[in-house]
């Protein structure tokens, strides 16, 4: 939901559509495949999270993919359900058939536009690519009202050709034009300039939504997506935990929390219920058996963990000292002040009191000395260790 305009705010807040492709770009990465039951469970979780579009799969890729798009289309009613298709007649027909039961169906067409892909992959001229795109958008529009057109490898394509092909795609009936950084090659400044130019020059752009789809090969997928949003993208394609081809896609949870944590900077909302981010991330990890790295932004185990004494002391005084988001805002139970060799007296006292116990300063000093000796031997000191230390026992024995 778009937030109401706050008193004193000058510009109305805008809305960016969250297009989740975990079940298509994410699922096609090695190690992340899911069966039909798992895909359905995850699609329901994405709907509960509040995504606007679920890219459910690539129906022409396999009978299994077709069936999962068909079932998700029939059972997940609120979001737009999207099926990917190459600019080929058979793909478009298969996409439309898979989406027949959807409340809000979308066909997502893609065709390479860059000179590298035109020469080595498609063996097609610029003119052939342009004609194929136009014919495919027209065909898709006879089967579905909502058609997205993606220029694969857009960030290595001549900008003037992008202007030409997107103007033609909109004239043929596309309502979303997607500008993918297919190989994660661009930089924030470069993609910002491209989006600004496309917004200025594409004919009919006021009738279409500009979309960003960034890969993470050089670690810039989220930064590039944000630069695109700042320059007119009003749909962003992303995945939970940043899963996706090679180094992945832009991480949905990072984009959402950037927009939410810096509302004055971006002035843009999403429809995401951020308290469902962590549960959705955990669900994906358990369905795929692929753990999330500990230090992953927003949803990693360490995202709200503090071990250093200085940080723990600051956090105990005021959480804003070392946290820019509240853990409960992303569905984490609470900040985790990890007791370890870097922790100080304040954190130890807080833990003791949290366990319902009391110590005076003299007792705390003595427990603290033994705590440091133990912490040097262990990676983490648990509540049971603290209780043993207070009882004068040796937790390491
Ligand atoms: O990365 C890419 O170019 C894609 C397209 C199919 C949109 O995933
Ligand atoms: Zn992609």
UniProtKB/TrEMBL annotation:
Gene Ontology molecular function terms on file: 2-isopropylmalate synthase activity; acetyl-CoA C-acetyltransferase activity; manganese ion binding
GO CC entries: cytoplasm
Annotated positions binding Mn(2+): 25, 213, 215, 249
GO biological process: L-leucine biosynthetic process
E.C. number: 2.3.3.13
Metabolic or biological pathway, per its Swiss-Prot or TrEMBL entry: Amino-acid biosynthesis; L-leucine biosynthesis; L-leucine from 3-methyl-2-oxobutanoate: step 1/4
Ranges of residues in domain Pyruvate carboxyltransferase: 16-278
Swiss-Prot/TrEMBL keywords: Acyltransferase, Amino-acid biosynthesis, Branched-chain amino acid biosynthesis, Cytoplasm, Leucine biosynthesis, Manganese, Metal-binding, Transferase
Obligatory cofactor(s): Mn(2+)
Superkingdom, taxonomy of origin: Bacteria
Subunit organization: Homodimer.
Recorded family membership: Belongs to the alpha-IPM synthase/homocitrate synthase family. LeuA type 1 subfamily.
Function, in words: Catalyzes the condensation of the acetyl group of acetyl-CoA with 3-methyl-2-oxobutanoate (2-ketoisovalerate) to form 3-carboxy-3-hydroxy-4-methylpentanoate (2-isopropylmalate).
This protein's name: 2-isopropylmalate synthase
Taxonomic classification: Bacteria, Pseudomonadati, Pseudomonadota, Gammaproteobacteria, Lysobacterales
Gene: leuA
Boundaries of the shown chain within the full protein: 1 to 397 of 527
């Amino acid at each position: 939901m778009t937030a109401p305009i706050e008193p004193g705010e000058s510009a109305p807040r805008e809305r960016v559509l969250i297009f989740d492709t975990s079940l298509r770009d994410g699922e096609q990465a090695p190690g992340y495949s899911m069966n039909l039951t798992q895909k359905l469970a995850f699609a329901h979780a994405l709907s509960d999270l509040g995504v606007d579009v679920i890219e459910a799969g690539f129906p022409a890729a396999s009978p299994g993919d077709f069936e999962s798009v068909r079932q998700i289309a029939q059972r997940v009613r609120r979001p737009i359900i999207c099926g990917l298709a190459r600019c080929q007649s058979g793909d478009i027909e298969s996409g439309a058939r898979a989406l027949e039961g959807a409340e809000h169906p979308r066909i997502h067409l893609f065709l390479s536009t860059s000179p590298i892909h035109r020469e080595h992959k498609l063996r097609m001229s610029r003119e052939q690519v342009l004609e194929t795109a136009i014919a495919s958008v027209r065909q898709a529009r006879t089967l579905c009202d909502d058609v997205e057109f993606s220029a694969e490898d857009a960030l290595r394509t001549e900008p003037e050709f992008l202007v030409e092909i997107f103007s033609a795609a909109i004239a043929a009936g596309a309502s979303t034009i997607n500008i993918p950084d297919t190989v994660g090659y661009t930089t924030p400044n470069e993609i910002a300039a491209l989006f600004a130019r496309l917004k200025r020059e594409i004919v009919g752009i006021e009738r279409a939504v500009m979309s960003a789809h960034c890969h993470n090969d050089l670690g810039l997928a989220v930064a590039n997506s944000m630069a695109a949003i700042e320059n007119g993208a009003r749909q962003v394609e992303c995945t939970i935990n940043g899963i996706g081809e090679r180094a992945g896609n832009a991480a949905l949870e990072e984009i959402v929390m950037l927009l939410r944590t810096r509302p004055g900077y971006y002035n843009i909302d999403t429809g995401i219920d951020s308290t469902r981010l962590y549960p959705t991330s955990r669900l994906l990890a358990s369905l795929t058996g692929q753990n999330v790295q500990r230090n992953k932004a927003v949803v990693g185990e360490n995202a709200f963990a503090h071990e250093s004494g200085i940080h723990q002391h600051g956090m105990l005084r005021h959480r804003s000292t070392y946290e820019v988001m509240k853990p409960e805002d992303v569905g984490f139970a609470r900040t985790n002040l990890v007791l370890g060799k870097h922790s100080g007296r304040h954190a130890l006292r807080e833990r003791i009191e949290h366990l319902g116990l009391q110590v005076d300063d003299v007792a705390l000093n003595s427990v603290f000395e033994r705590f440091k000796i133990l912490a040097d031997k262990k990676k983490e000191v648990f509540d049971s260790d603290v209780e043993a230390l207070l009882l004068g026992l040796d937790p390491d024995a």
